[in-house]
Amino acid sequence: MDSSAGATAPVLARPSVSAEGRARLFPSATDAEWTDWRWQQRHAVRNLEQLERYVRLAPDERAGVQETSSLFRVGISPYYLSLIDPDHASCPVRMQAIPVRAEARVRPGELEDPLGEDKTRPEECIVHKYPDRVLFLAIDTCSVYCRHCTRRRITKGGEAELTKDQMRRGIDYVRNHPEVRDVLISGGDPFLLSEERLESLLAPLSEIPHVEMIRIGTRVPVCLPMRVTDGLARVLRRYAPVYVITHFNHPKEVTPEAREACERLVDHGVPVENQAVLMRQLNSDARIIKELSHVLLRSRVRPYYLHQMDVAEGCEHLRTPIAKGLEILQQLRGHTTGLAVPHLAVDLPGGGGKVTLQPDYVIERGERETLFRNYKGETYAYPEPEETDCSCPYDEVWQARSRELRSQGR
Ligand SMILES: *Cc1c(COP(=O)(O)O)cnc(C)c1O
Question: Whose CA is nearest to atom 2 of ligand 1?
């Protein structure tokens, strides 16, 4: 077989966690069914009775499914279910998909709208929190409902796509706000939309002159990789620049199928970035985050954010101390490829927005020099220059010139 066709080569025959799980749990599914994302959607496990058919639940999990059933949705694609370790309740896939009792307990300080989005929500589907970019909530369903979901107030609702009218109002909002140059489409999972519906969103958005780029936040490459068809990738490429931001949290999720999905996007000219969420006892370890970054970079996926867990309802048991994230970054920076080091982000409760943290490498900031500690703990000095005027004289010329070029449409 032509090795350059790697992104489209069949992966089902290769030994992998997913192939093993599929053979055990869905032995009668044909290849055509298994690789059909709509079959996966139809066969998703959505309640305790269905779940117990496939997984021997721990008492804490059984109670968790029961006690959260009126609060948050459960939904697991057969593919993601096939990654679950049948013997260990601490399996990272299992922990992200199956509720435990702690999730039913809302702790003091936990918020239904942890990021204060509803107060900057001028339309049903628009969150406009930052000056030059908006979040466009295009759908409220997912292929797998994450136990750590930060928008569960949206995903817990009654399975509905945005109406055509709501979508039009969202697009109008962007059109009427020339300061918006970046639209981040999220939900729910936008890749559960049909290609036609996705196009009916991408086409008008990309035609708006001030919209310079579009991003799509999705867990489909992780939870439903068969959805990433050539057809989908071609649609995305048509409206470039479209960046896909996906959400792998553990190297176990980076299966041959998941890698193929990511590489198919990249092969079509669609860059893929990853945002992971730091979760206690799931990936809260520098070794795991490093392995995740490495395996993602090998699949041409760039680690973007490592998120401190939001104070969403029922997530307390998954939160790490702030110091843990900093410790992890410290164990990455300098020790491995700079591209493998994500930004550590805290999205401030109540709507403050994201801030990033990094270990403090400055020992002392003097007038003549700054003293640093490097990644090995050694001390180095960086001297200040004589001149400190940092204004850029050419910039006025350049701004005038680029205005001129723009007005000529160049
Ligand atoms: C995270 C987020 C964005 C995008 O932030 P970046 O730092 O540009 O990736 C935009 N809008 C909202 C509401 C967000 O939460």
Answer: 135
What integer pLDDT is reported at residue 9 of this predicted model? 45
Clarify whether residues 31 and 134 are in a common domain.
no
Express each pLDDT in 84-143 by its tens digit: 999 999 999 999 999 999 999 989 999 999 999 999 999 999 999 999 999 999 999 999
Q: Which residues span the domain enclosing 50? A: 17-103
Q: Is the peptide bond before 188 cis (omega within 30 degrees of 0)?
A: yes
Which parts are annotated binding residues for [4Fe-4S] cluster? Answer: 142, 146, 149
Q: Is 147 exposed, middle or buried (0-12, 13-18, 19+ CB in 10 A)?
A: buried
Residue 33 lies in a domain: yes
Same domain, 30 and 129: no
Write out the binding residues. 142, 146, 149
Question: Following CA atoms 330, 355, 191, 295 in sequence, which dihedral angle do they give, to the nearest 10 degrees?
Answer: -10
The residue nearest atom 8 of ligand 1, judged by CA position, is 133
**CATH number of the domain residue 282 falls in:** 3.20.20.70
Going by CA atoms, what residue is nearest to atom 3 of ligand 1? Answer: 135
What pLDDT score does 158 carry?
A: 60
Question: Is residue 343, in this structure, part of any structural domain at all?
Answer: yes
Total tally of structural domains belonging to the chain: 3
Which residue of 117, 119, 121, 135 sits with most ligand 1 atoms within 8 Å of its CB, as the best mutation to test the pocket? 135
- Are 339 and 390 within one domain? no
Exposed/middle/buried for residue 278 (C-beta within 10 Å: 0-12, 13-18, 19+): buried
Q: Which residues of the chain have pLDDT under 50?
A: 1-13
Whether 203 and 60 map to the same domain: the answer is no
- Closest atom of ligand 1 to 134 CA is 11
d(CA 242, CA 271): 8
Residue 56: CB partners within 8 Å, gap ≥ 6? 86
Report the atom number in ligand 1 closest to the C-alpha of 184: 10
For residues 406 and 337, state if they share a domain.
no
**CA gap 293, 381 in Å, rounded:** 31
The tokens describing 369, both together, are: 């020099």
For the beta carbon of residue 225, count every other beta carbon within 10 angstroms.
27
Residues 136 and 203 in one domain: yes
Amino acid at 256: P
